[in-house]
Specification:
mainly alpha, 6 helices, 0% strand
Amino acid sequence: MVYVLAEMLKLSFACTQPQEFERSLDLWLRTAHHARIPELDGFCKMIRSHFQGVVNHARYPISNGPLQGTNNLIKTIRRQAFGYRDQHYFLLKIWEATRKHPKNRSFLSHSFRA
């Protein structure tokens, strides 16, 4: 039963129209309630209390995953940098680690003009 509920929830989040997503999520909540699984009761209660925000995911499908990844990277650098006295160097380490396209430092790739 739990596998069926998991697939239903995945299909609900695949909806792109807010009204369709709302109906699908409401159906999932009713089905999960009738399953009488104690572990799902708390989850369903949380979804119901944030229902409108969850439904807004269909309208604005954004995630804070990249931000959380960057925060985790900064925490890791901070742990590794324990003892750095220079705050500017610490900020440079963060800047270097968070760049999307690091500079190519190979001299072979540069074209020199004569």
